[in-house]
Fold these 2 entries.
Entry 1:
Amino acid sequence: MVDTSISKAAPAQVRIDLGERSYSIVIGTGLLNDAATWQGLPRAAQAVIVTNDRVAPLYGERVVRALSGYYPTVHTVVLPDGEQHKTWQSLNRIFDALLQQGCDRKTMLFALGGGVVGDMTGFAAACYMRGVPFVQVPTTLLAQVDSSVGGKTAINHPLGKNMIGAFYQPLKVVCDLDVLKSLPGRELSAGLAEVIKYGPIHDLAFLDWLEKHMEELRRCEPTALAYAVQRSCEIKAEVVGQDERESGLRAILNFGHTFGHAIEAGLGYGEWLHGEAVGCGMVMAATLSHRMGILSDSGVERLRALIQRAGLPVVGPRLAEDNPSRYLELMRVDKKAEAGEIRFVLVDDAGQAHVRSAPDALVAEVINACCD
Amino acid sequence: MVDTSISKAAPAQVRIDLGERSYSIVIGTGLLNDAATWQGLPRAAQAVIVTNDRVAPLYGERVVRALSGYYPTVHTVVLPDGEQHKTWQSLNRIFDALLQQGCDRKTMLFALGGGVVGDMTGFAAACYMRGVPFVQVPTTLLAQVDSSVGGKTAINHPLGKNMIGAFYQPLKVVCDLDVLKSLPGRELSAGLAEVIKYGPIHDLAFLDWLEKHMEELRRCEPTALAYAVQRSCEIKAEVVGQDERESGLRAILNFGHTFGHAIEAGLGYGEWLHGEAVGCGMVMAATLSHRMGILSDSGVERLRALIQRAGLPVVGPRLAEDNPSRYLELMRVDKKAEAGEIRFVLVDDAGQAHVRSAPDALVAEVINACCD
């Protein structure tokens, strides 16, 4: 007879070192149900779980039950799912609930959901009574590897995405890998795009590892997922740790995002998932790196093959008759552009990233070569 | 012939020491027109002045002109005047303007107005693209002595005042004493309430000084005003410097505010000015300090006389048939109350403040003794 109680591996931990705002990312299976997950958080009269109408029926009850052992009152705020609801109106529903329940400055918020829930809950925590503590419980792969580190919180404004927000750190991040099993395959692939990103910009050994384990990741095997999430968070922490307020180095995390944002904006947001656009954008950025003479042809091909194996598109969509001009136009209005100059994140054969501008003619060639 | 260029005193400076978020409060006359006031701020493509429809016609043009020497484009956002406009809707008008003008992360905001403009502009600066720099240019005495230090920014929510906000520090605070001449006398007196407060809680020598110079202050004599503003900011800085995130000590700055908030809420906000309610609230808090045995009768009388000389009410309004019960009820729902226990700021004969609870019966006696 097998004793299953000892077969479960202890969760991995990534420590994010930010002085008095330091916190841990816990990565493992069965975490939502495990009392140890929620121990050690500050006590308060009330806890409030913020989630969405897709995640609430799957995991809401479980987290309420777990938290009820530690907080006398646990409320749940259910927001509508989707990027189009990342608005002031949704944010205000959180504030309404907090005030109606008489929540004080010690109230703990828990963000149970994907990136949208995490961004909004984090921003609500940053602003409510000028700051209450919060815990991230990301339920998508993208949120686990991307939103767990960096402290970026925000809502959208009708005139721009993520325009209103704050840098605000959680007390803890709980990445339960079990919840990824309920993710549609397309969303899992989109999350893998942000995982793959960390290889070429910072760690070629991780790129090797991803090539060996891509099938296991797509099958949601916990050991492989745990390592992928852990290593992604570690690399992001190394980069962000040197640049918490996004003044320079952190820009390398946008590898694939400049082309990717153009794809998203050009097709209309929601047509391709963010991760799909980033996957394809990485192929384009790698191709540009090659044309700029810092990445070998085999380096480009290697990345293209891995992105394809992750279930992601590797050929860009045609956005207009004069396709290169449309891409360039969209990239020039991106928030990251400075005075109209597009800053590309390029990678080299040594696994280093470089932020550079590039001649329009060369970029146009890359767009022609990489699109339908 | 008198050389007026040397008759003007150099502005006083109070340095607020907060590590990399340190800044200076500059206090003097003619500052809005003086190029030196605006020198040394970070350059940017755009500056945005946020003000209200009362202040804009008086000083807007002057500040636009002064800033135009340093910023290629200077926009002005004019909000409606008044606490009732300290809302998300007004805040969003700032965001709309920033986005419509294509303002980037280096855009400088200038808050030109009283506390409402300062609170909203500061919060807008804290949130726009997750933080842009801002400068406070307070145009009321209350804002000069109260909002210059502490980094509190906020908007109101329909269910509570200042419920949504951030701690966010300005790059500089410019207190031009000339602008106080256009203040109605009632508002000047209201500002003096917050000035007087700093004596009994922290500095009896300042209380002596105020007794000697109250008439000059009410006549807006610049030398007296400069010292009053400077010393108030210094004392607030000393208190806040030890407690930036409002965990304990900072509560002593609420001397007079517990009773004062009950007066404001009981009469309906706007009936008495905040400073008027605080002035009267200080008389009540001093009386309670006496009944609690830590302040002499002459200590109470001294404070009452000074508050009266500042043009402030010293007798509390009757709020209900059973007046003490109504005051107690209102004080129990105050944001500063903890689990329904009212925390009073009391003062002693040595010029020290103490945060204490008090028996309801004793508080009721004080209310009876101090009200109409």
Entry 2:
Amino acid sequence: MSDLRSNQQRLWDAHMEMAVFGATPKGGMGRLALTDDDKKARDLFVQWSTEAGCEVRVDGVGNIFARRAGRDTNAAPVMTGSHLDTQPLGGRFDGILGVLSGLEIVRTLNEHGVEHEKPIDVVCWTDEEGSRFGAGCVGSNAFVGRRSVEETLKMSDADGKSIGDELKRIGYAGSEPVGGFDVDSFFEIHIEQGPILENEGIQVGAVEGAQASTGYMVTVTGEEGHAGTLPMVLRKDAMHGAARMIDAVDNVAFDFDPHPVITVGHLRVRPNSRNTIPGQVIFTIDSRHPDDETLAAAGRAMINACERIAGERGLDVSIEKTSHRDAVTFNNDCVEAVRAASTALGITCMDIYSGAGHDAINMTHVCPSGMVFIPCEDGISHNELENARPEDLAAGTDVLMHAVLQRAVRL
Amino acid sequence: MSDLRSNQQRLWDAHMEMAVFGATPKGGMGRLALTDDDKKARDLFVQWSTEAGCEVRVDGVGNIFARRAGRDTNAAPVMTGSHLDTQPLGGRFDGILGVLSGLEIVRTLNEHGVEHEKPIDVVCWTDEEGSRFGAGCVGSNAFVGRRSVEETLKMSDADGKSIGDELKRIGYAGSEPVGGFDVDSFFEIHIEQGPILENEGIQVGAVEGAQASTGYMVTVTGEEGHAGTLPMVLRKDAMHGAARMIDAVDNVAFDFDPHPVITVGHLRVRPNSRNTIPGQVIFTIDSRHPDDETLAAAGRAMINACERIAGERGLDVSIEKTSHRDAVTFNNDCVEAVRAASTALGITCMDIYSGAGHDAINMTHVCPSGMVFIPCEDGISHNELENARPEDLAAGTDVLMHAVLQRAVRL
């Protein structure tokens, strides 16, 4: 088994070529889903996959599947992949590694003439980041039936442009049905997006599960007024109320052990004029914890804090739960395949838990799934400074390749 | 003197006609400077002024002057006016009253065949609100030489569009020189934008002066990171730091007696994605107080609070003073002219202080200046609900007309 290795330089070069589309001045990526840059990235993936002999299909929500045929053409495929879209100020590896590792596996198998029983599908999921259309894992959600295709296509961005229209515009409104076929198993390789592997000096994480997560939208409503004339005691300043709520929400994390992670990442002010007392502030809360009960308790504490502050300041507050995912445990056979591949290849491996959401979590609804983590520099992600080492990309890809081959039955 | 009165219905109707351009669903106005709606409002003012026999001139920063000739064509004009632009969510009277009262005075003088020695200029100043190009009183600042024409034309909005280009686009890049001619005196009528006149049951305020004001731009810089993976204790969350600063800045107001007014009206988050820890937050502070020294002390307290919080949270903060205006006292002869006109007309009047900035404050740099305030409903302004009574508009206009005629020397 340990004879077969990926090509580290080729894998790295693919990342650098893909990083051209949506590159930011500080060396990061700003490639929002279904933009012109996303189209260019998709086109390059399709071109590379076709050149590698894959059959490429695109489904009705823009998910791209590149298939390396197996001997048994009727067998359910072993699937691997991730996404090519990024945060507005993100990095060159988050998601992209998962797609390009899959491609590198196909190229390596071609090079060595390796055959397998079941087909291997490399997938690029549509809009994993959720930075543009309001919710993440759009493509895999539709694939596993968690959101209907119709609803998916209607989701729209801040300018009112829908996923359906944007898919058509960039040429990725595919003709294949969304989901509805058997998948043998799904593996996703991803940078850890946290500091643990790097701190421990270990090359690969076998991901056991993912934490629970709940998102909220908080709308604070006061009264607009002139900044120069309305006395302080008569004000209903939505910005000041929101500021106190954000401080309180953040502090809730420290009331639980281990701390949940709580983030107010998005905020907008109405009318957002420097000489008008804000009449309305809307902000999001992202909260996550490995334990469902603890996360629910933290949610109740945050809601209580916001309502208390609104009452003290004469403001109205409404808090909407916009997303929720229970904690997830990955399939034990898949996790074991990752551990076994690492051992066989002599690559250091530890069990780890995912802090972030991933398409692989959706895939647990339809097939045995697992993930491979690799270290990223200083644990930094969702940031232009996100970075990873070529040798870690290659080591993770090797582990992924052997786990996939074990499921696909190498001939 | 008391024979001459404005036409209350005509004045009110002019406001309602002008309120069509940029009307908002809740009955307010969103007519940012140099937009298509601002052009329509300007066109209507030019049309009405021309129909009333005025000679209309437009200067190089788009200020519009409609002149009713005096017997002495060489005399410096008595000037009155205000602005037609509004806040993003503003009202139908802020600024607009000052322009339409001037027009109503011309119409009334025409109707009664009244002549005067000096010319009377009705002015519409460009971009008083400052909601689009970053600073207020743009037209009057250029007129009095506080900002060069060149610098003024270069000022740009969030989309990078400059005042110079936008003036050309809407046809108001005029050929007249900016300022540089003598003005006998300047009067501006305006809604109070505060609750005092209404609470006292008085129809007109003779404005003695305006409070000092200082604006700041605060930039809080932390580090972006993944909302799901970076432990709370390792975060440098610019949003959380900014929230604490806003709370502290607001609380500073209550350490001084009487309280300054302090407002955080504008805020933006970078990258503003719900699942990314914010790396940067930029917000404005607007602070005002009648006493220069007290305002300076409040400013030092706010800066200290922001720097202390940044230090505690491992964040960088930079605080830039973006605007400053000392407290202003209006010309005593002008204030007295307002008081005298009220007495002669039997209209109730009290001395009052302005909480807001106005073009009249700029005009104190070049000529004797004064203001007339009228009540507005519940003191609400910079708000779609801003409202005023037809009889108060007319009473204020009558006082303004007689103060202007006293300076222009009625024949």
